[in-house]
Amino acid sequence: MLSLHSRIRWLVPAVVLPGALLAADLQIEHITIVSPERVTPMREALVRVHDGRIVAITRARGATTHSSKNFISIDGSGLFLAPGLIDSHVHLSGIPGMTPEQEAQHPDIARAALDQIPHSYLLYGFTTLIDLISTPQGMARWKSHDIVPDTYFCGGAALMDGYSMNYVPRPQRYEVWPYMLIEPGTQAPEGTDPAMHTPQAVVSRMKADGAICVKTFFERGFGGVRDLPVPKLETIRELVKAAHAAGLPVLMHANSDEAQRFGLDAGVDIMAHGMWNWYTENSKTSEVTPGIKKILDDELAQNVGLQPTMQVLYGIRDVISTSFLSDPRLPRVLPSNLIDWYRSPEGQWFHVAVSQDMKLAADANPSQIEHVANEGFASVMDRGKHATAYVIARNGRILFGTDTPSAPTYANPPGLNAWLEMQRLIDAGETPAQIFKSATLTNARALKLDRDIGTVEVGKRANLLLLRHDPMQTIDAYAEIAKVILNGRVLDPRELAANGAH
């Protein structure tokens, strides 16, 4: 059988980029369409794309011709055509595992990493990303690369000096968090007008800046910090009211029972984490208790979306691992000089920070440290898994999101982290078909993008995947993608992989 590359026929003017065909009229013949709104696949289909959008879907009938001088034809025999995937929870402002100061000290490593990261998301089929805490300036930097997934952003409405702006030193934090909330009676920073930081004011600015959603937070802290300020219920209720009036969904960072109950009472639309911290439950079990069940049942009744983001916990734990940086999949998604830097003493800074936070002896044997870390994370991982499984079993509204990277950790590598999240969801009881829907149509609907993406339909943007396996049957489909189509532009995974890896 001919390879897919040899089955692509094109007539394009001048020069074509290596591995990427300039957006042209595109025709995919004899393809099987798998789309979440379809009850059954459409076999032997013919799909036509013009100006980056699907303009026709018909039955393929023999050989076809086309009069365009800028035309690509793909024989899709034996392949599946699916909508591109959506990761509804990423952070794109930097390089996983590197601080801004380290990026400045190692410009060659940083440049290679920043060029590769967009490719790595595409390599695993993610043609759309939602950065949950960004600004127009951050989006402009991210989109400055030649090939980048379609990317949208939420404005981050953090309570002043609360999570997660507390990690940025004063006074810079007040500049890099333009949508922070200042509650009545709170002393505003010098030079800051509190009237610009009410729920109504920050939502208005987010909307004007092009945000498609609002991200807020309920987090008292973790590790050595447990006393961060949290917002008042009336503040977040006002935020939700203003956001809904502006047509923006509200997501809340909420990974505990207390936080998710707060989010329910405030009326948020999506919990931007699974419930792995059970602070109000005295039980030592990781099985769902009556108290946890009540919160989850209320979320199900209110149709609140849930982003389980189970890889968050693995991304913290695995910086302690003695083998993670030897994972043979890493060279596909990370430049070799970045992986080498991660292994250096400087690159191990977050490993040291996590070890100290867990009160692990610095002079302990690495395998002993890893064993202690595995034990320390086991119960919280199990709780997150069981809470997620409870929602999945009752057909809750699961949204596929990864929180890549969840912290300054190299163990949430772009693209690959999403593939690992899928495996966690399978372990929690979600089927490949459910994952497929949650990463396409469910995400698109939740973020009000379904007019453009999420399905293979006429009029939709041509963000598509050519797959060797049916994604309704196996998540292996995303590990062996034949072609990625981004706004009608055909991309070869061999050219998207780092270091020439296949």
Mean pLDDT: 92
How many β-strand runs? 17
Looking at this structure, what is the CATH superfamily of the domain at 5-83 and 455-500?
Urease, subunit C, domain 1
CATH hierarchy, class of the domain at 5-83 and 455-500:
Mainly Beta
Second rung of CATH, namely the architecture of the domain at 5-83 and 455-500: Roll
Taken from the alpha-carbon principal axes, the silhouette is globular
> Can you summarize the main beta sheet?
10 strands, mixed
Radius of gyration: 23 Å
Structure description:
This protein has 502 residues and is α/β, with parallel strands linked by helices. The chain has a domain of 125 residues: Urease, subunit C, domain 1 (Roll). Helices cover 33% and strands 17% of the residues. The chain contains 16 helices and 17 strands. Strands 1, 2, 3, 4, 5, 6, 7, 15, 16 and 17 form a ten-stranded mixed β-sheet that branches. The chain has a seven-stranded parallel β-sheet with strand order 8-9-10-11-12-13-14. 46% of the residues are buried.
